[in-house]
Amino acid sequence: xxxxxxxxxxxxxxxxxxxxxxxxxxxxxxxxxxxxxxxxxxxxxxxxxxxxxxxxxxxxxxxxxxxxxx
Length: 70
Prior knowledge:
Strand order of the largest sheet: 1-2-3-4
Radius of gyration: 17 Å
Largest sheet: 4 strands, antiparallel
Structural class: alpha+beta
Helix content: 25-40%
Number of strands: 4
Shape: flat
């Protein structure tokens, strides 16, 4: 089983760099990954983290932040 990631290079972040896709990924500092598969399982799918409940995590962090600010 192989791990891989995929990035859509048809974004403004990579404009002018498509002549060398590997260099584009290395030097253009991608902000988002579209897909990441590790051990045959999606970790990132369609740009969203698939391994956690992001909404729940945001709510938890907001509550902790509110407590710290009080």
